[in-house]
Amino acid sequence: xxxxxAHSKIKKLLMPSSxxxxxxxxxxxISTPFVEMSGLITEDxxxxxxxxYGVVIVLQIAATFMRGWKRSVSIFCTPIVLxxxxxxxxxxxxxxxxxxxxxxxxxxxVYSGIFSGVCDLGSRRSLTIVRIFLVLSLLFNVIFVFLVxxxxxxxxxxxNLWRGGMAHKNIAGMLCAVTIILFTFDCQKFSxxxxxGVIIASFVFLYFSWSKTALIALPIALSSGAVVLYIxxxxxxxxxxxKNYVVIAARVFFCIVMLGLILLTVQxxxxxxxxxxxxxxxxxxxxxxxxxxxxxxxxxxGSGYGAYWDSSINPLGISADSRGSLKDIDxxxxxxxxxxxxxxxxxxxxxxxxxxxxxxxxxxxxxxxTAQRAAAIxxxxxxxxxxxxxxxxxxxxxxxxxxxxxxxxxxLHHHKIKLQYRSQADxxxxxxxxxxxxxxxxxxxxxNSSRPPxxxx
Length: 457
Hints:
Blueprint: H1 2-12, H2 14-37, H3 43-46, H4 49-67, H5 69-76, H6 80-89, H7 97-121, H8 123-147, H9 149-152, E1 153-156, E2 159-162, H10 169-184, H11 192-209, H12 212-234, H13 238-266, H14 268-273, H15 284-297, H16 324-327, H17 335-366, H18 371-387, H19 400-424, H20 430-436, H21 439-450
Antiparallel strand pairs: 1-2
Helix pairs in contact: 2-4, 2-7, 2-8, 4-7, 6-7, 6-17, 7-8, 7-19, 8-10, 10-11, 10-12, 10-18, 12-18, 13-17, 15-17, 17-18, 17-19, 18-19
């Protein structure tokens, strides 16, 4: 009996541990751009962030024991693990073991912290935490724009574009766009007035940041969420009607992308010809050209996860040394090309499957049950994937955009395992439900089961 009481007390610590771990990871992801760019924090002070990551590691290990092995396996058993395994395997051929090891570890830590936080806290509670962080970040960035303009604005030609504490206007724009998405869909807990105020303020900041990528991707992302809601209103049982179509479309899309990449790999001259004009796409073609050449030379293995940039060798070649705009480049400004040159064709295929193919299949099963959340996730994934056409955040260690993508995938996985265990287990058996149910949901379930059945008159 004493052991059972002790075990019960330990399980009660799961929620606080997951809450703390989840919150620390969100804080680290959002604050990273500020820490890297502001100049207000010394190198020694930056190293203190390692202690925060250490706390997350300890909390994750403790949470694994608290929730039990079986539940932990159900939380972390996703296709993203295959990407982590392949990225870890790249340690065998990378020329920068330290960079690859550090970044694989960060990606694994973000993955475990986000997925465990969403599954332990529940979708509604974890989303509330995310929205609180987004509002605080918006306030922080606005304050920096007006009180510390030398940091809060970015000189771009004749204009001072807003960036707040986000290092670059495009990062600030992405954060504003995510805020707009998450306060547009599945946000009934907040008042309409508050939601409208946050959305308007975020859009104003987005406009003055003039992040073209975010300004273009946001309307498309919101439209994808609106389509989900339209389908839900149009059909009474949309998940059964559209699931097969979505699965087929996703598989066809995946095959087309992979086949197209194979053809481009074989037709080397044509692939290189696409970036012949290095001044196109605001100079991004000049960055992509040597990256494509590197991929063609290493199509299967790549450079090793996270090892292409920030190395001692200039990855853009000696011609970049004399061009100020390319001298300090540390990303490829294309998430798909970046992941391709780092983990090769196999890793790229896994990343596309995890981020595009599987999610929309899961969204199709979610529409009929929680349409608002399905709309929010659809819009968020659509935005992040579009943003990766000109920026890099696709499964990029603890990058802010990558964190939001993993967050969206975690909500889909949480919905999936809830459906699985509800279909397999008898909800009236507390011994079965206790292994998998979210503590808040379990409490409500027990309250409902303890109520006497309504008498018919």
